[in-house]
Amino acid sequence: MRETKLGIAAGLFTILAWASAGIFINLLDTLPILLIVSIRLSVSLFALFFIVFFLKKNIRKYLSELNNYRTWLLGFVLFLCYLFGTLAFALAPVGEVTILMTTSPLFVILYKYLRKEKITVFEIIGVILAFLGVLLITFNEITFKDFFASSRLLGNALALFVSLLFALYAIIYKTMNEKNEAPHSFSIAFATFFMGIVLLLFFIDTFMQNNLGTLSNSNVVYLLAISIFSTALPTITYSLASKYLKPIQTTSILLLEPFIAIVLAVIFIKEIPSVFIVPGFVFILLGLFFIIKNKKEKA
């Protein structure tokens, strides 16, 4: 019971931390996306080292897995998630982006279809419902005239692309895990965050000339917050939630993230969601429920 409570607490903190990322990105709207991503991941790397050391974990073991190409492959996929996810939050409403990023199970079902694996009735119903939800959220209040000119539409499209990347990550990781070749999640995080340092060093001259020298105190606070609170810490707590909870419980808790993101957006950046976001969210939740229900019954 104690471990279950710890898992639930870790899961709730994880969704709160991840849901806040879009808020900080919007508050940093004067900074270029590449700068936000590079500083976010670079600071997260140092924070993760400190956290792992504080938890008395075997840092050498995680670092040794950096010699494995699989660690860098998975790390690169997550790096792309951070990059395009940050851009999505900058272009579209926080609530919409967060909801669309939860649709990874749809792409997993598509993968099964392409591999000619058996797809159940529950999964078909789930895909249809979730797809209707995506349409409601993405194409509401957009006329044909500004169909191609809408930055919100591009942001939503990028959010779906990030969802696709998450599905790809899950598929690759599962395949590796079945062969006992999957690296530890901490090792993958180290690889992902290290790519932020590479990105920072690659553009350091440009950043120094145009942005780093003019960072305000509030920007520094927001950058530290998105790095530590929204990135490094949930990396640890998500691992704890996955360790102490059943997969169905972890998945169910994570579905609360869009709701938390919408509430935070209303409070902190006065972002009022479209009226279409509620039925769209309900359709997606129902769709994911059917998909999760199918997995639960198989288990």
Description of the structure:
The protein is mostly helical. It has one domain (2-105, 144-273). It has 14 helices and no strands. The protein has helices at 2-27, 33-54, 59-64, 69-91, 94-100, 104-114, 121-138, 151-178, 185-202, 204-210, 217-244, 247-254, 257-268, 277-298. Helix 1 packs antiparallel against helix 11 (217-244) and helix 4 (69-91) crosses helix 9 (185-202). The two termini are 22 Å apart.
Primary descriptors:
299 residues; mainly alpha
Give the overall shape, derived from the CA principal axes: globular
Structural class by SSE content: mainly alpha
Helix content: over 70%
Model regions low in confidence, pLDDT < 50 over at least 5 residues: none
Radius of gyration: 19 Å
Counted up, domains total: 1
Strand content: under 5%
What sequence of helices (H) and strands (E) makes up the elements?
HHHHHHHHHHHHHH
What summary fits the major beta sheet?
A: none
Total DSSP helices: 14
Mean pLDDT: 86
Quick one: how many beta strands?
0
* Terminal CA distance: 22 Å
Summed up:
The chain contains 14 helices and no strands. With 299 residues, the protein is mainly alpha-helical. Helix 1 (2-27) packs antiparallel against helix 11 (217-244).
